[in-house]
Amino acid sequence: MHDPHPTLTQMMAKPSVRLSHLLWHALRETWQTLSHIEQRDYITRFGADWAPKRSSLDQSGNIIYRNGAGLDFFYMHRMMLHKARSITKQYRESPPLEWGSLPAHDDPMFPASISPPMLNEIVYPSKSENVWNTWVQSAATLLSSQSIMCTSLDEIGTRIEYGIHAIMHERFGSRGANNEKRSHARKPPTEEKWNDIGYNSLFDTYSAHVHPWFWAIHSWIDAQITAWESIRNIQVSWSDVWIGGWSNHAHSPGIFDESVDTDKILEAVAVLPLDQCGFYRPLLSPEEASGIS
Ligand SMILES: [Cu+2]
Questions:
Q1: Which of 110, 124, 167 is nearest to 142 (CA)?
Q2: Plot region of 61 (φ>0 → left; ψ -120 to 50 → alpha; else → beta)
Q3: Which pLDDT score, from 0 to 100, does residue 293 have?
Q4: CA of 160 to the centre of ligand 1 (A)
Q5: Rounded distance, CA 211 to CA 194, Å?
Q6: How far is the CA of 255 from the centre of ligand 1 (A)?
Q7: Ligand 1 center to residue 205 CA distance, Å?
Q8: What are the two backbone dihedrals, phi and then psi, of residue 57, each rounded to the nearest 5 degrees?
Q9: Rounded CA gap, 201 and 174, in Å?
Q10: 14 Cα–ligand 1 center, Å
């Protein structure tokens, strides 16, 4: 695949960025499975910035609604997008890809990724035409004016995160360009091959942001914030959102900051009971994600 912005891609493939993205996602999903003593020890070792202000899943892995985690999801990825856009501008590369709407099931530019063949519709139903169409419909219901008028942006963020967002990572996900598949390991990836620029699988929070379509997925998600604001005719206040250890610089969030201590983040990741939590997976049915069930 032609890479429209090699410098951006190279930056995204650095272990510090990979680990920070994985840790951000994994923390909000696993934090509540740690005991209070483990949480306290974690904060002592790694600092309060890398402790989630709130969790997206509870101790049993159930989704938590309306606690602000949906806003964290929107905001953290908005910051990633802003930074990615400024990097491509700075290096005079093509801007990150954008999707104004979700790709149709037969869009020749953005087909479901079905290679190698074990990535099939049985393992990932969203790779099928019908299931994808159902999800597109589900998103349209969630994001209709009627739904937006009675649903907080926070709740919409959560329904997107564990619905259409995870579905997009699966539908368009494949092994990385280097054809490597990281298993649902409990331990962080330390082998060099996972830091190769070719490891850009959309399935994995360690690599998804290295793939150029990551920006397309998240530009579509980001546009839903603006849509919500314009339908409600109000502006979202982003006070108290959580972007993890990237927030060290109070006035301009240090997204992709390379001064983060990579070894420390690696240790922090190793403390967490990772399992599936480094990987995107839908936790909602299309009906649940649409907010009507
Ligand atoms: Cu992410």
A1: 167
A2: left
A3: 59
A4: 12
A5: 14
A6: 12
A7: 6
A8: -125, 150
A9: 6
A10: 15
Cα 25 to middle of ligand 1, angstroms: 6
As a whole number of angstroms, the distance between CA 27 and CA 25 comes to 6
Token couple for 25: 């996602």
Rounded to a whole number of angstroms, the distance between the first and last alpha carbons of the chain is 40
Pull the structure tokens for residue 77. Answer: 């990825």
Q: pTM for this one?
A: 0.94
Centre of ligand 1 to C-alpha 48, Å, is: 20
Confidence of residue 184 (pLDDT cuts 50, 70, 90): confident
Q: What is the pLDDT of residue 259?
A: 72
Q: 21 to each of 25, 128, 210, 243, how far by Cα in Å?
A: 6, 29, 11, 10
**Distance in Å, CA 209 to ligand 1 centroid:** 7
Q: Is 169 exposed, middle or buried (0-12, 13-18, 19+ CB in 10 A)?
A: buried
Question: What six digits make up the tokens of 62?
Answer: 């159930």
- Residue from 209, 269, 82 nearest 260 by CA: 269
How far apart, in whole angstroms, are the C-alpha atoms of residue 151 and residue 102? Answer: 21
Give me the residue spans of the domains in the chain: 6-290
Q: Is pLDDT above 60 for 252?
A: no
Ligand 1 mean position to 231 CA, how many Å?
Answer: 26
Task: Give the separation between CA 162 and CA 115, rounded to whole angstroms.
Answer: 24
> 172 alpha carbon to ligand 1 midpoint, in Å?
15
Indicate the helix (H) or strand (E) that contains 274.
none
Q: What is the DSSP string of 102-120?
A: PPPTT-SSSPPP--STTS-
Please tell me the predicted confidence (pLDDT) of residue 248. Answer: 54
How many angstroms separate the alpha carbon of residue 80 from the centre of ligand 1?
9
Q: Say how far apart CA 196 and CA 9 lie, in whole Å.
A: 11
pLDDT band at 249 (very low <50, low <70, confident <90, very high): low
Q: Is the peptide bond before 116 cis (omega within 30 degrees of 0)?
A: yes
